[in-house]
Please model this.
Amino acid sequence: GAVVSQHPSRVICKSGTSVKIECRSLDFQATTMFWYRQFPKKSLMLMATSNEGSKATYEQGVEKDKFLINHASLTLSTLTVTSAHPEDSSFYICSASITGSGQETQYFGPGTRLLVL
Amino acid sequence: GDSVTQMEGPVTLSEEACLTINCTYTATGYPSLFWYVQYPGEGLQLLLKATKADDKGSNKGFEATYRKETTSFHLEKGSVQVSDSAVYFCALSDPQAGTALIFGKGTTLSVSS
Model:
């Protein structure tokens, strides 16, 4: 149980285009989903916290107009990287916490590798 | 602010060797502590956790004890296997700082037969 999927697993795009990444909780409802960015040899950096039906809460330094997050249902959150540039190339990981369980235990997706040319 | 510091890797061991990956933390409140593992090509998985001082988390032969006096949560295993090769992340969740996880930088473990 508690499986989180991400799609796509990797994407290559041209500079200036937008890329959408989906995060789904497959067998549970997730009131809260989190989006992280992982740089090589660096820790995961929290980008934003996404609550179903409301606006995402972004961490300091993360451009909300560039990284659009939508949490349309209890099983789906999307991250759209708008007007992507090479410096946006990274590994993006989502996680979800089970509704009513408290937010301590997060279940992570496998990640999406984005390469912007 | 809250932070997690874990030992730099990579850690290279032979099968059946003992493992210790050090992790220390700073927090303003009373955090919960976690170890996550990321196997090659897979997402992070919760390995073990401890929610209060002196708690010991354990799973798959790994153990870590929440030491408030030394603000540490070192990961240990008495006999590693090749299948333990992965990246290990120490993390904390501090209710006073919000519920988001704060991760260490990760330690790569490579076990050879």
